[in-house]
Amino acid sequence: MIPRYTLPDMGRIWSDENKFAIWLQVEILACEAQAELGVVPKAAVEAIKQKAKFDRKRVLEIEETTKHDVIAFLTDVAEYVGPESRYIHLGMTSSDLLDTALAVQMREAGLLLIEKLIALREAIRRQALKHKNTVCIGRSHGVHAEPTTFGLKLAVWFAEINRHLERLQRAIEVISVGKISGAVGTFAHIDPAVEAYVCRHLDLQPAPVSTQIVQRDRHAEFLSVMALIGASLEKFAVEIRNLQRTEILEVEEPFGKGQKGSSAMPHKRNPITCERLTGLARLLRANAMTALENVALWHERDISHSSTERVILPDSTILLDYMLHQFTRIVRDLQVYPENMRRNLELTGGLIFSQQVLLALAQKGVTREEAYRLVQEHAMAVWGDFSERGKPEKVFEQAGFLERLLEDKTIRQYLDENEIRQCFDLNKNLRHLETIYQRLGLRAESSSLN
Fold first, then answer.
1. What is the DSSP letter of 303?
2. pTM of the full predicted structure?
3. What gap in Å lies between CA 220 and CA 233, rounded to an integer?
4. Which CATH number describes the domain made up of 351-423?
5. Is 262 an annotated catalytic residue?
6. Among residues of the chain, what percentage have pLDDT more than 70?
7. Beta strand pairing status for 205-206 and 177-178?
8. What are phi and psi of 136, to 5 degrees?
9. How far is 352 from 345, CA to CA, in rounded Å?
10. What class is the 10-90 domain?
11. Quick check: do 95-194+204-344 and 351-423 share a fold?
C-alpha cells in the first residue's frame, strides 16, 4: 500500500499525490473487505497490494481523454496491477471513492488547524497573563468609556478561541464520515460491511444514510466554522489596527529590522499583516457561502458542488492555516505601550469615572434621574473644554471633572471629599478582574493595579 503522510503541512494534504494515495488506500481497503466476504479472491487482493501504484502525470494524461478523474486513476492503477485490477472498485461508484477520500483530507486538514488554534491560544494566554493589570481605557462607539486592562481584552480573545476549538472539533466529527453504498446509496452492488471496514481503517464513521454522495450540509458546517474563526481573527486584527493608530498608539504589530512601511514615507510603520488578515477573512466567508449553496443538489446528486469544492476546501484550509500562523506571530511579538495607555486613560480629565459618581449619589438617596443630571452637567462642561483644547485661541484652564465635583455644593450635600475621591479609584473599577480570570482558567499572581 502506498505510504501516506500523517498530518503533513496543509498544502501537501491537498496535493494530487496525497489525494491519489488516499484513493488507492480506499480501493485496497475495499478489496480487503470484499475478500473477507468471499467476493474477491484473497490471492487477488495480495497481488493488488503488491503491485498497485499510480503515476500522477499518467493519471492526468489519461484524464485529458476520459474527462473523468476516477476512471483515469483506475486506468493508471490497472496498468500496474494487471488482470487482478478487475476486482478494484467492484460494486462502487465514483463518489464512494471521492467522498470517502475527501473526508480523510478534510479530517487531516481540520486536525492540523486544531494544532494551530492551540498554538494561538497559548500565545494569547501568555500575553493575557502578562498584561492582566496593564490598565487602559475601554471604548464604546470608539469613545472613551471606562477603565479596563489590556489583559482583559486578550482574555476575551482567549475565551473566543476556546469556543472555536470546540466548534472545530465538532465540525471535524461531522465531516469524518465515509460512504461506500453505490450509485444511489442503497448498497445495491456492495455489502454495507465493506463501508464499515473501510471507514474503520480510515478513522471515519459510515454515513448513517447517503445518496450517491455524503450530504453537503456536513461540508458547509466545516467551512462555516472556518469562516467564523476567520471572522474572529479579523476582529482581533481590527482591534490591533485601531490601537496602532498614531493618535492612540497603545499597541503595534511586530515591525522587523529592515522592514519598510512606505515607498514614499520612511517614517511609516503600517499594520500590514493585520490588514492582510482582514482581507483574507472575506475570502473565508465567501467560500462558506458557496458551501451553503452546495447543499441543495438535484435528487440523489449532481456535480455542481464538485467543481467549487476543488477550490474552496483547499483554499479555505490553507488560508486559515496561514492566518493562524501569522496571527500567532503577531500576538507573540506584539509591541505594547503601557505609558501610552495611561496617557490615553487620563486624556478626558477623569470623565471615565462618571458612572461611579452617579452610583455613589444614588446610594445616598438621590434619584437616578437627578444624579444623572448633576453628573452630566459637569461631564459635559469638561467635555466641552476637552474638545476645545486643539484651538490656538483656547487655553485649557478649566477645572477637571474631579475638581468640579468637589466644588459642587449640591453634590457635597451627599458626598464628602473622601467619598468623591474614592469614585476615581482604578482598583474599585477593576476589583473583579481576578474572578474573570479564574472563570477562564487563566491563573496569575495577584498584584496591585499600576
1. S
2. 0.92
3. 20
4. 1.10.40.30
5. yes
6. 94
7. parallel
8. -145, 175
9. 8
10. mainly alpha
11. no
Look at residue 390 in the predicted model and tell me its pLDDT: 54
Hey, where are the domains in the chain?
A: 10-90, 95-194+204-344, 351-423
pLDDT at 109 over 60: yes
Q: Closest by alpha carbon to 233, among 167, 164, 151, 286?
A: 164
> Is pLDDT of 62 > 90?
yes
Catalytic residue, candidates 141, 267, 299, 432: 141
- How would residue 260 be classed by pLDDT, with cut points 50, 70 and 90? confident
Q: Is residue 304 annotated as a catalytic residue, yes or no?
A: no
Catalytic residue among 68, 262, 325, 387, which?
A: 262
Q: What CA–CA distances, in Å, run from 272 to 123, 253, 331, 386? A: 20, 9, 14, 32
Query: What is the CATH superfamily name and number for domain 95-194+204-344?
Result: Fumarase/aspartase (Central domain) (1.20.200.10)
Report the distance separating Cα 436 and Cα 431, nearest Å: 10
Q: pLDDT by residue (tens digit) across 7-61?
A: 458 999 999 999 999 999 999 999 999 999 999 999 999 999 999 999 999 999 9
Backbone angles phi, psi at 272, to 5 degrees: -70, -35
Q: Which residue has the cell 471496514?
A: 197
> What integer pLDDT is reported at residue 443 of this predicted model?
77
